[in-house]
Amino acid sequence: MSYIQNNLQAGEEIKYKANIHWYIFVYPIILLFLGVFFSCAQTGIIYYIGLLLLLLGLFHLTKRILLKVGAEYVVTNKKVILKSGILSRDALELILSKCEGLRINQSIMGRILGFGSIIVTTGGVTNKFNFIANPIKFRNEINAQIQ
After folding, report:
1. Contact, 18 vs 134, CB < 8 A?
2. Are strands 125-133 and 115-122 parallel, antiparallel or unpaired?
3. Is the C-alpha dihedral spanning 103, 70, 20, 80 positive or negative?
4. Is 115 in contact with 130 (CB distance < 8 Å)?
5. Which of 47, 74, 84, 116 has the fewest CB atoms within 10 Å around its CB?
6. pTM for this model (two decimals)
7. Per-residue pLDDT tens digits of the chain, which is 147 residues long
8. Which of 117, 63, 120 has its CA nearest to residue 87?
9. Of all helices (H) and strands (E), which one includes residue 17?
10. How far is CA 115 from the centre of its chain?
11. What separation in angstroms does the CA of 139 have from each of 40, 59, 114?
């Protein structure tokens, strides 16, 4: 059972669940392609650069898969729950009535492809969650639950 399901209160129901955008896999895939391309040279320093790129690509791909699997971003009728991590956990549970600020950051690529970062502030504490698919909808759902 997920972290979210284990921590719902009586009468609390999930209204919206955000996902991590597929764009997180672009950088590792580019590294893997470059690594394969350069390691096909089979001679000289270019071959070793290719091997290094392959290792970096595999490392980043593993890291991003763990991010995707371990992230849960949910709006319920009572609170916002933002949880990331599998082995270590970073969880923020924010009661909707205490919500001070919710900021959305989107790059040009994020606007085109539909992803961004959500920055939640409460009591002077700031938490940032990256690569959220459709962050505008996430914000709108929070605002709908507050009203």
Report:
1. yes
2. antiparallel
3. negative
4. no
5. 47
6. 0.79
7. 588 888 888 888 999 999 999 999 999 999 999 999 998 877 889 999 999 999 999 999 999 999 899 889 998 998 888 888 888 888 878 887 777 778 899 999 999 999 999 888 777 777 788 899 999 998 888 888 877
8. 63
9. strand 14-18
10. 9
11. 47, 32, 14
